[in-house]
Amino acid sequence: MPASSETPTPPAPAPTGPGQSTAPGSSIASESSSASESSSDLAAGRPGRRVRPRHVFWTFLVTSIAAFMTSLDNLVVTMALPSIRTHLGAGLEGLEWTVNAYTLTFAVLLLPGAALGDRLGRRRVFTAGLAIFTLASAGAALAPNIGMLIAARAVQGVGAALVLPLSMTILSAAVPPERRGAALGVWGGVSGLAVALGPLVGGAVTQGAAWQWIFWLNVPIGLVAAPLALRTLTESHGPSRRLDGIGVGLVSVGLLGIVLGLVRGQGHGWTSASVVASLALGVVGLAAFGAWEARLGRPGSTRTPMLPLGLFRRRGFAAVNVTALLFSFGMFGAIFLLAQYLQTVLGYSPLGAGLRTLPWTAMPLLIAPIAGPLSDRIGGRPLLVSGMALMAGSMLWMRLVISPTMSFGTMVLPFIVAGVGMSLFFVPVANVVLGSVEARHEGLASGTNNSLRELGGVFGIAVLGSVFAAAGGYTDAVSFTHGLRAALLVATFVLAAGAVTGLFIPGLRRGTARMGATEPTAVPINA
Predict the structure, then answer these.
(1) pTM (2 decimals)?
(2) Which of 71, 121, 381, 409 has its CA 20 to 30 Å from the CA of residue 137?
(3) Backbone conformation region of residue 88, classed left if phi is above 0, alpha if psi is from -120 to 50, else beta
(4) In the 8-state DSSP scheme, what is residue 527?
(5) Using CA atoms, how far apart are residues 51 and 323, in angstroms rounded to an integer?
(6) How far is CA 293 from CA 41, 249, 445, 526, in A?
(7) Terminal CA-CA length for the chain
(8) DSSP alpha helices (H): ranges in 209-244?
């Protein structure tokens, strides 16, 4: 879900200032941790090498199309959920997995996807990701039941995890250092625009054609983009690193077990054997993952851990990542239910519901240009904390005013407040994350932050969905409203907790150019 959400900071040769405006809502993965160190990556900007404008144009076009297509799928499906529920006979559990199957595989495979490109060739893996995403989109459109749709969405997530991180790395390599910040900024803006337009596009397509067409739209784009990538992109490699296959397996088992238990708990009973076993397996899997990653991070280890646990010993890095996870938990969990409320309870069409989310989802397009320069002067922490507080306030406001018979006008102001809060979070988060680590760890830091934000969305949908089911349901408008109120109250507390954790982010020290510069840079990342 997407993610996702900031304008990426370019690799070390062309660092971005701390106040750079960030794109809204994008679930953007990081480049490889050593992209700035690879000689092939620097070919475009290496002295003596002539940069071909035509090559830069085609690289920008292909990578931006790919980023737009994969980012759009974070929220495009939300406005189609009521139609999917009716057409495929899905319940709440099936709808949750329709969203989470994509986000979960995407989050888990973000960092391994970048490493795979370093090892096998970035153009090759990027093109393979486009092909996987395109085929999976066709599979989702043809799905005869909710199970097949969920499976296709999971495969879509695999393709997206290969495409997004490598699209940024490939573009960075093709652009001269002096233009890299601008190119990556526009790329991030394209990704953010896709997320902002997701509900609107999903609603328009679902109403104008059918829900299947939100997936069919990807097919012709992918069929053009994949061969174009092979023809126009330059192949490059990063340092050959051994893939942490054991880490990927352990974290996949752990996260799947916990999410499966949370999604099934209300329907099957929290004390049922299957739910308890699923949650226990998840806890054991995540504990084993932590132990394994700590082992790989020890001094002298010849293997690179998937998740550098030692980075979390830095106060700024730990605080901003916890805040980001709580942000995605509250925001995506709430959008999942509010998108259905607009159609199921208030009776709007899919297009009408999508248009009515714009005061929220499109607000970053207006706020980011203002908040960016402000973060230069006061630092990122005040914006992050204020944004989380505004988000919490908007959730509480909505919880107090929603009813089965209310008019949409009552929701406009809380939607705007939520959009402003989301904007204040998105603008500084990238630079706060990158400023909390040394330049050589920026890739790992950014990738870790994006993965955790995607996981926050997964857990938000699972937990708020369970709260919704416990307090209400789809029986009628009154029941749905009761469930939504309970879920919004939980989202309020989660986002308020995020505002508190944001206070632990180091402030901007006078005279420093990077956020988090108050922290020592000599702290080792070895666990």
Answers:
(1) 0.78
(2) 121
(3) alpha
(4) -
(5) 40
(6) 28, 12, 15, 10
(7) 29
(8) 213-216, 218-232
Amino acid at 520: P
| Measured torsion, CA atoms of residues 96, 97, 98, 100, in degrees rounded to the nearest 10 | 90
Cα 299 to chain centroid distance, Å, stands at 32
Specify the higher pLDDT residue, 366 or 231: 231
Sequence-distant (6+) residues with CB within 8 A of 103 are 1, 2, 3, 27, 74, 157, 454, 457, 458, 461
Q: Which of 281, 495, 469 shows the shortest CA–CA distance to 387? A: 495
Q: Computed over its alpha carbons, how large is the radius of gyration of the chain? A: 22
With a CB cutoff of 8 Å and minimum separation 6, the contacts of 333 are 457, 460, 461, 463, 464, 465, 487, 491
DSSP class of residue 20 equals -
* pLDDT range class, residue 388, cuts 50, 70, 90: very high
Per-residue pLDDT tens digits for 343-373: 999 999 999 999 999 898 888 778 877 877 7
Backbone φ and ψ for 317, nearest 5 degrees, come out as -65, -45
Instruction: Quote the pLDDT of residue 443.
Output: 67
Q: 328, 460 in Cβ contact below 8 A? A: yes
Contact call for residues 264 and 275 (beta carbons, < 8 A): yes
The span from the CA of 465 to the CA of 93, in Å, is 8
| Structure token pair of residue 13 | 């040769």
Burial class of residue 145 in the structure, from the number of CB atoms within 10 Å of its CB (0-12 exposed, 13-18 middle, 19+ buried)? exposed
